[in-house]
Amino acid sequence: MAEVTIERVSKSFGTTHVLHDVSVAVGDGEMLVILGPSGCGKSTLLRCVAGLERVSGGEIRIGGRVVNDLEPMERDIAMVFQTYALYPHMSVFDNMAYGLRNRGMERPEIDRRVRGAAATLGLADLLARKPRQLSGGQRQRVAMGRAIVREPAAFLFDEPLSNLDAKLRVQMRQEVRDLQTRLNATGVYVTHDQVEAMTLGDRLLVLNAGRVEQIGAPLDVYERPESLFVAGFIGSPPMNTLPARGEGDAVEVAGRRIPLPPGTTAEPGRPILLGVRPEHLTLAGEGLPLLVRLVEALGADTVIHGTLEGTDAPLVVRAPGILRAKQGDRLYGTVPARALCLFDPETGRAIGL
Amino acid sequence: MHKNVTFKGWLLPALLLVPQLAVTFVFFLWPAGQALWQSMLVEDPFGLSTQFVWFENFQALFHSPEYLHSLKVTVVFSLGVAALGLGVALLLAAMADHVLRGRFVYQTFLIWPYAVAPAIAGVLWLFMFSPAVGVVAWLLGKVGIAWNHQIWGNQAMLLVVIAAAWKQVSYNFLFFLAGMQAIPRSLVEAAAIDGAGPGKRFWTIVFPLLSPTTFFLLVVNVVYAFFETFGIIDAVTRGGPAQATNILVYKVYADGFVGLNLGSSAAQSVVLMGIVVLLTAVQFRLVERRVQYG
């Protein structure tokens, strides 16, 4: 295992710039998840690390070695593809052994590694089968097995679970995380699925239009988004952003004063977007007034969609348990000061908290 | 969407079927029947009397050294055409698959030879290799190879194989290219990450996945070499020199229409008919089997 360093990497296809100045370092044994909407360049970044695409600028190092000009096979990485990319004419055993044979490994060693990986992944009885005789989940496991037997410096995952049905995805998600921690593997995992992003990674990189929006531990990114994009992209339903105005040690929203945490100030009169997670609003007899438009009762909790009274800003509250409310009701919600996020409406970036 | 049209009564459907049935009967069943009948007749040299001889024509055929020689020539010729046609097409398709800029132009030009009539193709190659005026023959002479396919049988065989294969390369190329483009890109990329170089990727991943296409094309090419190369042989060598390129189809013509040995010629036709039936059956089985991956 080794660390993977991406430094100021950019990539363009002709005149289309896909990646701008992306920098991130993945530590030894760390799992970095790259999250972003489709077309943000996350797969391209992964393919640059794999060597399937050449970078247009910057440097990629794997285990301290600059790999910019190395072929994929020379980079000592293994990749799990979204479509699994199993060789259809080879048995499960041969699929896993292919990379080892290409490297001229001795037969007994190949046998040992493939059988070891197959046992780990529960594929021991399927080694003679062809990929078309396997279910989606089994194919996914073979694809992972093919990566594991190589014992590479780093694993690259390109949305490996997105072709599975919802139930299997939950199960495989846990298996991937379990396997990665057990092998103490360095991994880069690309996904557009928030749940995978929150649960699989040690750190999260949010990519938008080829630029890094934020890098951090998943919960930090969730609680302290550094930009409006991240605030709106992570969390379901996403963070509320309410138009507000600075008042020194408080902000004013829809004619109400909300105090800021101690030590934080906002210049009086400065326009601000106030970010509040839906679950941080507590329904009470006072606070921000919410006109109910739609109620989603999910059982475990209730999601109430509405608008902030006196404005047309949408406001969503996630209240625990079952709550009876209907369209047109007026509810009030209070927010603890520590849960507030402030954004500059001009730049879309977070304001110093 | 699939719709079954149903007719009331039988007159209209019968009338609608008549033209196709008539064509089949006049141009296929009747001549085939004639050939079968004639293959069992022997005529005297002046065509004044015919005698029914059962299978004597066939018996004579398979005891005739010329016919067995022609059979051998045909096998060599069709294997040569198939090997050369498939090999070159595979190479061209592999290269065209990598071209990004101007690929449409390449593909279009590579398809053109297929539109050339066999006799014209034969004449084109004949001109290039003509011992007297051919540019290739002249170039070969420069490097010390004496080219005269009118004297040396092996050279004649090589020439007709090249001419016949050249025409078929286009067809094979189309199928190979389509086959290669149907292979998911990620498979080749996975192999690249798995440490296989370009050559190894081709032989261990791409070529095995093309095997249904290759087998289909092999049958098509053999059928082509057996039956559709008459024009090339006729234009280039007329079966010569010394029977060196006298393939079965050409021998039917030479014996029947030139030599006027109608009984033997008809028997040869019947043998060829048997071969067509066999190859068609193989091909049908192949299409039905439909090898599927994924």
Keywords:
heterodimer, A: about 350 residues, alpha+beta, Rossmann fold, 2 domains, about 35% strand, B: about 290 residues, mainly alpha, about 0% strand, globular
Tell me what you see in this structure.
- The complex is a heterodimer of chains A (353) and B (294).
- With 353 residues, chain A is of the alpha+beta class.
- Chain A has eight helices and 20 strands.
- Chain A has a six-stranded mixed sheet, with helices on both faces. A five-stranded antiparallel sheet of chain A has the order 13-12-11-14-20.
- In chain A, helix 2 (92-102) packs across helix 3 (107-121) and helix 2 (92-102) runs parallel beside helix 4.
- Helix content of chain A is 24%, strand content 33%.
- Chain B is mainly alpha-helical.
- Chain B has a single domain (55-293), classed as MetI-like fold, CATH 1.10.3720.
- Helices cover 72% and strands 2% of the residues of chain B.
- In chain B, helix 10 packs antiparallel against helix 13 (262-289).
- Chain B is globular, with a radius of gyration of 24 Å.
- Chains A and B meet through strand 6 and helix 2 of A and helix 8 and helix 9 of B.
